[in-house]
Amino acid sequence: MATDEPSCVPTRVDQAKEYLDKHRVMELFNNITSQLIYARPGLSLFLWQLDEPKQFIIDVLERLQKSKATQFDLPCLFDESNIISIFGMLDPTGRGFISHKQYEEGMSQTAETMSEVL
């Protein structure tokens, strides 16, 4: 006789989700995709060239593997141009300085953005 109670046996979908979560696979793919979109390998300002996204992804994975082993030179999308851009948004009048409150807000927004990317 069949029962209406849910089965305690995890389904293949549940197992797959657990695996992806445990190994942070989706975070890795999101990070690689973000880096790919940010770098746009093969893109020229003057003409479109043959993109090399596959080689770029291989290079990113190799850098990640190396940085994981050495705990040095972790890949990052955030660079000095981003700092200048944020500062410019926080200092729209061009005074050359911002308040401590503006600094905290900028750092808070940056941390939120970076956590979404990574």
Describe the fold and architecture.
There is one protein chain. With 118 residues, the chain is mainly alpha-helical. Helices cover 62% and strands 0% of the residues. It has 5 helices and no strands. It has helices spanning 12-22, 25-39, 53-70, 80-90, 100-117. The longest helix is centred in the middle third of the chain and has 18 residues, at 53-70. The protein starts with 11 loop residues before the first helix and ends with a helix. Residues 81-108 form the EFCAB10 C-terminal EF-hand domain. It comes from Batillaria attramentaria. This is EFCAB10 C-terminal EF-hand domain-containing protein.
List the helices and strands and how they pair.
Layout: H1 12-22, H2 25-39, H3 53-70, H4 80-90, H5 100-117
Number of strands: 0
Subunit arrangement of the protein: single chain
> Radius of gyration over alpha carbons?
21 Å
How far apart are the first and last residues' alpha carbons, in Å? Answer: 50 Å
Poorly predicted ranges: none
Strand content: under 5%
Question: What is the global morphology?
Answer: extended
The helix-strand sequence is: HHHHH
Question: What's the main sheet like?
Answer: none
Mean pLDDT: 77
Task: Identify the notable features of this structure and list them briefly.
mainly alpha, 62% helix, EFCAB10 C-terminal EF-hand domain-containing protein
Structure described in brief:
62% of the residues lie in helices and 0% in strands. The protein is an all-alpha fold and 118 residues long. It is extended.
